[in-house]
Amino acid sequence: MKEEQRHHVVRIILLLALIQCVSCYSEDDIVLIFGDNISPKVSTYLHSLVLQQTTQHDGINVYYYDSTSPYQPEEDISAAPYVFSFGNTTTRNMLISQEEVDSLPSEGYIIKSAVIGSTTHFIGDGQKEENSIIREDDRNNSIAIGAHFAAFKMMEIIGFAFLHPLKFNIPDSLNLDVFSSDLNITDSPYWPVRGFHYHTQHLL
Which partner from 5, 82, 124, 152 sits 20 to 30 angstroms from 66, CA to CA? Predict the structure, then answer.
C-alpha cells in the first residue's frame, strides 16, 4: 500500500472512531461549540476553564468544537446531556434566530436555554461593535464583541467568576440547576464608550 493511501485509511479510521465516540456520551458529558465570531484565544481559554473544573470529577468528558474542527457535531448532539453553544454556530439556530441577533443594539447579546429531548441546550450570541475606536487595520471584523459578552455571562451563570483579568474563580461544581427552567436573557452595555485606567488593573 502506498504511503498516501495508508494515510487516507488512517484518517478514515480516526474519523469513524471520533463519530462513534461523540455518539456515546456519558450522562454528565458537556459539548462546547464555538462559532467563528468568537476569538480563538477566548474559545481556548473558556475550554481550559471548563476542563480544569471537570477534571475534579471522574466520568465527565468535555468535547470541544470550533469552526476549524474537521468534524462538526450538529448531527450527534441530540445524544449529549449538555450542549453549550457560543457565538454563531449552527446549533445556535435551535433557540436563537439570526433576526434576533440582528435586532440587538451594538455589543448587545442574547442567551437562551431549553431542554430538547434529553439534551440541555445553553446558547448565546451577540452583536458586533458599531463605531469602534479601534483602528480598522487592527480590527478583526469577523469577531462580535457581544458574542464574547454572552460567552462570559454564560460562564458566570454556571458558576465561574472573573474578578480580574488575571484572577478567575473555578467553582467546585457547575451550577446546572439553573437549567431547571428555561433562560431568556438579553442585555447590552449602557455606556456606548467605555475604557479603563491602569490603576483598575491592580489585583484584587
Answer: 5
